[in-house]
Amino acid sequence: MPEKEKTKNIFFKVPKILFTDDAYRFISTDAKMLYALLLDRKQLSKKNGLQNRIGDPFVYMTIAETCVKLNCGHEKACRLFKELEFHGLVFREGQGFGKAVRIYPVDLF
Asked: Are 102 and 87 contacting, i.e. CB atoms less than 8 angstroms apart?
């Protein structure tokens, strides 16, 4: 089976509540898509056992990777993460100088 056929029906899930609940109506569509990417990666973290000391799964996604995935610039990627944090959809935890930031996407359902 060609590679294109294998990935044909793979998709990201975007929680419907982001579009139906007034609490999320002012979140940009780009931020909602970033949230969907983070939730997808969170499922992989759960599957692979990537979690903190108390069992919360986390993900890694750099600003550079975000820029590539969403076809945007550095400033916009930073703004999207801040937007998600402001609305309580993600929490970021620094690991110290030179180490990757852990991102904890919040489940809405």
From this structure: no
